[in-house]
Fold this sequence. Notes:
Elements: E1 5-7, E2 19-21, E3 26-28, E4 32-39, E5 43-52, E6 55-64, H1 72-85, E7 88-90, E8 97-106, E9 110-113, E10 116-125, E11 129-131, H2 143-146, E12 147-148, E13 156-169, E14 172-185, E15 190-192, E16 203-204, E17 215-216, E18 219-221, E19 226-230, E20 234-235
Antiparallel strand pairs: 1-7, 2-6, 3-6, 4-5, 6-10, 7-8, 8-10, 8-11, 9-10, 11-20, 12-17, 13-14, 13-18, 13-19, 14-15, 14-16
Amino acid sequence: xxxxxxxxxxxxxxxxxxxxxxxxxxxxxxxxxxxxxxxxxxxxxxxxxxxxxxxxxxxxxxxxxxxxxxxxxxxxxxxxxxxxxxxxxxxxxxxxxxxxxxxxxxxxxxxxxxxxxxxxxxxxxxxxxxxxxxxxxxxxxxxxxxxxxxxxxxxxxxxxxxxxxxxxxxxxxxxxxxxxxxxxxxxxxxxxxxxxxxxxxxxxxxxxxxxxxxxxxxxxxxxxxxxxxxxxxxxx
Length: 236
């Protein structure tokens, strides 16, 4: 069994649930999506859509209570609930990197003893592999946020203040009306308050314009407002 683990949003590891894995998982990295157009006399043309397909990770899990006390059905239920709720998938040989899990498919268990059984797992993940440090909040003046050494990323912008402001990223702008706080999530293409209220009508502009490109980036906010950025750095 390989030494890797799954972590959920609370940081709990699969080993806490007596879950181990048979062999290294199969990782099918999400590929670029192209739009096919057939042009008379020229054949098929493929246009880069700028999008990527899902990354799919398959594995065989071993739920094994050997040497430990406990009821099998209780352990089975706890393990499956843990897997259903997991949001991050880590590998021990990729320190500080994780896959962002969208959905998990669980196969039926095949028991091979009173205390152990196998089942198939399939994780459907966002394209690319994400960096732990990209989940932190940075001020636009921080050196860490000014240069993106990785692929294009879809950051989260958190604004505090009152009134109308302009968020400028690499010369492109989004206008926002802020009442104490506003979060702009470019991955989900949503604007909302800390209390969860959706505030899409409070912003005008294109979310795509706020993406962080590879290399140098410039991020500005209207004076009188405070801005922090969660860059969501990733490698595609």
